[in-house]
Amino acid sequence: MSESASTGQVKILLVDDRPENLLALEAILQGLGHQLLRAGSGEEALKHLLGEEVSLILLDVQMPGMDGFETAEHVKRREKTRDIPIIFLTALEAGGHQAFRGYSAGAVDYLAKPFDPWVLRAKVGVFIELHEQRRALQRQRDRLQRRAQRDAEEMLALLERVEVATADAPPDVTARLQPPLAALRERLEERRR
Q1: Which residues cross the membrane (predicted)?
Q2: Are 11 and 34 in contact (CB under 8 A)?
Q3: Nearest Cα residue to 120 out of 30, 5, 19, 18
């Protein structure tokens, strides 16, 4: 478990090629209690995502080299990062084509600069909460799946004892028991996987 997961602190990745924009984002978000990670390019953002468990990405659209759209496409292709919400930030005219391209690349929201700091803070709060709820549900699903596998293994062990105990039963009893026991074994084997 990562340090941020154990302390409850989430990480937000801020991606912009202009240091002054990163500084402004940090100033807006610093009071929320989240760890803010900086990346000056799409490539640097992808490197962060290799080793960090990030809960939200604020991503500038216009950057030299790998732009925000291409960066988002890379993020969404990876199993580990595909569910991280991305909010695009752009100085471009927020025309329909650009917004559509942002949503197509996997963004959950698209804000045009200059944006209202309070709106950004509110959106960050909502998307962090949704992402954390999704992760909590995933952890619960994993626990339930492990429990179901353990229960299936226990039931299979019990079934083996029943099969051994009925092996010496009269042939007519054995013939009646074999189909339901075989069906039960098959269902338990599936559940154990």
Answers
A1: none
A2: yes
A3: 30
